[in-house]
Amino acid sequence: MICEHEKLHEISVKRAKEHILHTQDVEKICKVFRLLADPNRFKIVSALLEGELCVYHLCEICQSTVSAVSHQLRLLKDGNIVRAKRMGKNVEYSIADGHIREIVEMGVEHLYCKGE
Amino acid sequence: MICEHEKLHEISVKRAKEHILHTQDVEKICKVFRLLADPNRFKIVSALLEGELCVYHLCEICQSTVSAVSHQLRLLKDGNIVRAKRMGKNVEYSIADGHIREIVEMGVEHLYCKGE
DNA sequence: TGAACACTTGAATAAATGTTCAACTATTCA
DNA sequence: TGAATAGTTGAACATTTATTCAAGTGTTCA
Fold first, then answer.
1. Is the pLDDT assigned to residue A16 strictly greater than 50?
2. Which residues of chain B between 18 and 77 are close to nucleic strand D, CB under 7 A?
3. Is residue B1 part of a domain?
4. Reduced to 3 states, what is the DSSP secondary structure of residue B92?
5. Range of the domain at B94
6. Domain count, chain A
7. With 90 as the cut, is the pLDDT of residue B3 above it?
């Protein structure tokens, strides 16, 4: 009982401790946020929300190099954010998970509603 | 027109280019995701969603040191995720922005619906 | 088959990040 | 005032991360 406001926070502390997620779960959630936290990856994901695209077009949209985009795509693929499918000479990328759109849109909404 | 599937992707490319956010906006959004991408900060934010708490209790909940939590709180404060308010010897922290709850909950939902 | 295109990969480098430690400020109360 | 409590801060360190470059794989087509 070091904190003076023990009484005031009793309920918050109790609820926070009850609701705290397991470390593994927190890490899984954070991994998704971390993947969306890089501007280039965010642009890749945003672009793919409009439809599937090959690496060349993603480079064009993100104004980045083929190699950099490919490295980022690998991370997104490993994190189950995107899916790859070879079509002839090209590799088509698409969004792998339906929740991603909601998370991205929530981020955009947060931006536009700032200052309310 | 290097990509073979130009026809197929014409619409996706067009839409992606139209909808692409400004670099500054992408960076603002990514900053929020980056702040939520660290397990300790995520735990701090989750705990504060249950009600305001002082540093000591946040340490207890996050199983971290006072100094580490304080450093993380400064980042969260700079990013307008949390707010600080001195109450006597303690500093009470609370969530500064209404959208944070939705973003966090979206992350949690993504976790539980994995595999659908 | 071999040249051209599309993409991937590994190593190297530079930059950003998180934690710890020690020293510091701010507040209360005897 | 001074001791105790609560929290902040800066420097140092190790770790992670993103990009670049060069070399590689896979596919198509003449």
1. yes
2. 54-56, 66-67, 69-71, 73-74
3. no
4. strand
5. 6-111
6. 1
7. no
Spell out residues with C-beta < 7 A from strand C: A 54-56, 66-67, 69-71, 73-74, 84, 89-91; B 2-4, 34, 37-38, 40-41, 64-65, 67-68, 71-72, 75, 86, 88-89
User: In whole angstroms, what is the distance from residue A30 CA to residue B34 CA?
Assistant: 9
Q: Indicate whether B17 belongs to any domain.
A: yes
Sheet with B82-87, strands from edge to edge, namely: B53-54, B90-95, B82-87
State percent of chain B over pLDDT 70.
91
Return the amino acid letter for A20.
Answer: I
- Domain assignment present for B15: yes
Q: Which CATH number belongs to the domain containing residue A30 in this structure?
A: 1.10.10.10
Distance CA B2, CA A62 (A): 16
Say if B97 falls within a structural domain.
Answer: yes
Contact B5, A87 (CB under 8 A): yes
Sequence length of chain A is 116
Model pLDDT for residues A32-67, shown as the tens digit of each residue: 999 999 999 999 999 999 999 999 999 999 999 999
